[in-house]
Amino acid sequence: MPDNKSAQTKDPLRVVLVTGLSGAGRSTAMKVLEDHGFEAIDNLPLDLLDVVIGDKRRQRPLAVGIDIRSRNFSASPLLQHIEKLHSDTELDVSLVFLDCSVDVLERRFKETRRRHPLSADRPLKDGILAERRLVAPLQARANYVIDSSDTTTADFRQNLTALLGLEESGIMTIQVMSFSYRFGVPREADLMFDVRFLRNPHYDPDLRRLTGRDKAVADYVREDPDYTEFADSLKKLLLPLLPRYQQEGKNYLTIAIGCTGGRHRSVALTEWLGRHLGKIWSQVIITHRDIDREPDRYR
């Protein structure tokens, strides 16, 4: 006779949905998950998502790749599917969004001579920006955001496996993320800091089109009279907390730093904090959620 109690306490099936910008590394992500024992299905049409995930006979964890090339793709229906899946107690569903800066995506498409899915009748950059607008709701809802702009394939694999807790190293992964308050706070943030009190490079015509990754902008932000005290206080706050979070069993910790537009102040602070933590912590990821948003749309 079957043990009903054992069936009721069975661990939920793990499902990882992988989406994001074309060229940001979805194919690599699917291969990584397959290497870790996931059944990987790429470019699954949305109308088959419930059918595939709903197969209760499935034993292996499932990874599903979905982007604008998937048939019937649309962010809104996909989000509705995800909310429905989250209500199923037999499933452990997470959404991974793969991000990348526009200039790096342009270079990748040109180097591989591949055509961007949305650039058939328009310049490559316009196609990339159009896709970013289409998938923005998915990025805002994602459980994990990985920026592949400045990472090697090896680093990308390490970041993905660490964020999803697939490694047994026991070392907590720290993600330091910049974001724009105009586009909503990141849901995955464990700690959040507001740097809108710092002077804004947006109002300097020579700096407006640059980002916090540029030295001129970083120097401008550092010259704020309150910058040094804030940065020192942030370090003193975080350093004793990190080992305590790891002791509590956290696999990853997301520290979010926000400003108005997500391009200047928050990016500069995120770069600084990520580099500093990287000197004392072995697994640190730096991501910039809104760095490619159009700068003239906000103040």
From TrEMBL:
Which of this chain's residues are annotated to bind GTP?
Answer: D67, I68, R69, S70
> Which residues are noted in the entry as ATP-binding?
G20, L21, S22, G23, A24, G25, R26, S27
Q: Where is each RapZ C-terminal domain found?
A: 172-292
Write down a Pfam family by its short name: PapZ_C
Q: Looking at the record's lineage, which domain of life comes first?
A: Bacteria
Q: Please name the gene that encodes this protein.
A: rapZ
Q: Does the keyword ATP-binding apply?
A: yes
Q: Keyword GTP-binding: yes or no? A: yes
Name this polypeptide is given: RNase adapter RapZ
User: Residues in domain RapZ-like N-terminal?
Assistant: 14-164
Q: Where is the signal peptide?
A: none
InterPro entries in the cross-refs: P-loop_NTPase, RapZ-like, RapZ-like_N, RapZ_C
List the keywords (alphabetical): ATP-binding, GTP-binding, Nucleotide-binding
